[in-house]
Structures are given as structure tokens and as C-alpha cells.
Amino acid sequence: MKKLKLLQDMHEAGVVAVLRGNSPDEVVRMAEKAIEGGILVIEITMTVPFACDAIRTLAMKYQSRDASGDNYAIIGAGTVLDAETARAALLAGAEFVVSPSLDEPTVRLCNRYRAPVLPGAMTVKEITAALELGVDVVKLFPGNLYSPSIIPTLRGPLPQANIMPTGGVGLENLKDWVKAGAFAVGIGSDLTKEAVASGDFDNITRKAKAYMEAYRQAKV
């Protein structure tokens, strides 16, 4: 049941912050600012040095939901290339795993531990292969190679597929992706690049609020 509840919560949250940085402290700070702005699904990429330290810190802080639901966020791991990395991330507290491509051992490991796994895919063949392995959500990556109309196109032959575009999703096209039927959307550097360049990490909070408002408007 926990896996199903996580998937439901991720779908309802709608926006996933994909965070990359130069250190665990930097991405933890990014995550805190994004959560402050209302983005409640955080993906820490395993390209961050000592990424598991960041996942552990965030999991300990945010994965203890109180009675009112405050101080809660879903923390996961991204850019997971193999099962060994997935296992390390899960042990550190990650609640979901995202991969840039479909790796069968990674999917099987996540299924073993009932952890949502979102592998990257680009074609009907890849999405079908993911579904056959029991994948619940496929990451359309890189999303900037497509227009939002790709989702209903793919779901013509595969109506059972849940698709999350990542890469190329911004404030200007988020509504189009949501209206096209995206399970959720992944937001990457657009959320953080200005903050990193200026040193004003409060900009992440402002951007996060803008993304969540755009998402709410798209769902109307």
C-alpha cells in the first residue's frame, strides 16, 4: 500500500524538482527552498558528490509526516544507472528511483523493495518494455525533443502508460504538458540556475511558487 500511496501523492503533487549541485549541502539548501515554495517531490541526482548524504539529510527532515501533513516531502534519487546505486539510495532514505534509461536490474530491485521506479524512455518499444517489467510511471526523457502532443500520441496504443516529461519543461509550457495528460512534470535547471548564478537561493522559492501556481491553473 505504501507504494501506491507514494505514487498517488506524487501524481497529486504534480511537480518534481530535479536537483543537481556541487555538494550535498548545496542540494539540501536547494531542496529546502523548493519545498518552502510548495514543491513537495524532490529528486536528488546521483551525479551530486556524496548524494546519499543529501538524501539521508532530507529524508530524516521531511519524511516524518505529522498529523496535519506539515513538514513533509517525498525524497527520491535520480540519474540512477544501476541496481547497486538504487540500493544505496534506498538505504539512504530515497522513496523513489528515477533513471535516464531503462535498466532491467534496477527495475527488478526497486520492485523487490516496492519502491516506485521511473525509468527514462523515448519510444513505444521502450515504454512497452518498461510496462512489461512492472513500471508504474515512465519518464519521457529528454522531454525537450518533443512537444506535449507526444503524450496522447503515445497513449493511443498505450493508454495504460503513465508518462512524466523531464527536460524542457518550463513555466511557458507546463500547462500544455499537464493538459496533454502528464502524470507529473520534472523541473530541472530552470528552477535553480538563476539562484546558483546570483547566490540568491530565495529565488528557488519564488520560482517554486510560480511553478506550483502554474500547475494549479493547469489543473482547473
Automatic annotation (TrEMBL):
<dbReference type="InterPro" id="IPR013785">
    <property type="entry name" value="Aldolase_TIM"/>
</dbReference>
<comment type="subunit">
    <text>Homotrimer.</text>
</comment>
<dbReference type="Pfam" id="PF01081">
    <property type="entry name" value="Aldolase"/>
</dbReference>
<comment type="pathway">
    <text>Carbohydrate acid metabolism.</text>
</comment>
<keyword id="KW-0119">Carbohydrate metabolism</keyword>
<keyword id="KW-0456">Lyase</keyword>
<dbReference type="GO" id="GO:0008700">
    <property type="term" value="F:(R,S)-4-hydroxy-2-oxoglutarate aldolase activity"/>
</dbReference>
<dbReference type="InterPro" id="IPR000887">
    <property type="entry name" value="Aldlse_KDPG_KHG"/>
</dbReference>
<dbReference type="GO" id="GO:0008675">
    <property type="term" value="F:2-dehydro-3-deoxy-phosphogluconate aldolase activity"/>
</dbReference>
<comment type="similarity">
    <text>Belongs to the KHG/KDPG aldolase family.</text>
</comment>
<protein>
    <submittedName>
        <fullName>Bifunctional 4-hydroxy-2-oxoglutarate aldolase/2-dehydro-3-deoxy-phosphogluconate aldolase</fullName>
        <ecNumber>4.1.2.14</ecNumber>
        <ecNumber>4.1.3.16</ecNumber>
    </submittedName>
</protein>
